[in-house]
Amino acid sequence: MKRIPHIIAPSILSADFGNLNSTIDLINASEADWFHVDVMDGMFVPNISFGFPVMEALQRRATKPLDVHLMIESPERYIERFRALGAHVITVHLEACKHLHRVIHQIKETGALAGVAINPHTSVTQLADVLGDLDLVLVMSVNPGFGGQKFIYQSIPKVAQLRQMATERNLFPYIEVDGGIGPHNAERVLQAGANALVAGNAVLGAEDPNAVIRNLKAIGQEGFKSIPA
Ligand code: DX5
Ligand code: ZN
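That is the input. Now the predicted structure with D-xylitol-5-phosphate docked in place:
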């Protein structure tokens, strides 16, 4: 039986921003599914990445859905603005919202898919009361703020626990994993129950980004040969 293909979402955080159009074109022409867009405010995370001007550039040129990961405090201030700039998925951090349930419904009202991200220190059990409202859960497998960090292996049982929690309740959210993902660990993450993978450095830092995307996309499909972890 063929497995339903998972989503591959290259993170443009690892792009050369002096030449953003070439990264956008590369992802457009590749087998990737979504653009992962990491917005950081220097408050929720110790780094500042980019904001609306980069979203505008993406909206103009990207031909695939924009998966917007807001690493910002009180993200309810900007939901409508990101949606107007073409966000298809809007993900906020559980740790950054005082009224998470309200923010989730604010996202849904814009027509975007609603996602909640949890940091490595946050238990998946904290999602129990909102899981039924979510289109996507993002399990952070590094502490958010920077690309190119080492994968935290404790994220794998979290993914499995979350998939079980969802399945038991007949829910089928995207489970996306973000941080330190590459061909060396992606198979284990998918086997645990994830169905969306973010990859920054492993894709855009590679000599042949297309080949890495193709490899990540092929995991679990017929003829795929795994790379030992
Ligand atoms: C980290 C970001 C990630 C990051 C992933 O805070 O949320 O999306 O860009 O980059 P890699 O794959 O290089 O860890
Ligand atoms: Zn991200």
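The two ends are 24 Å apart (CA to CA).
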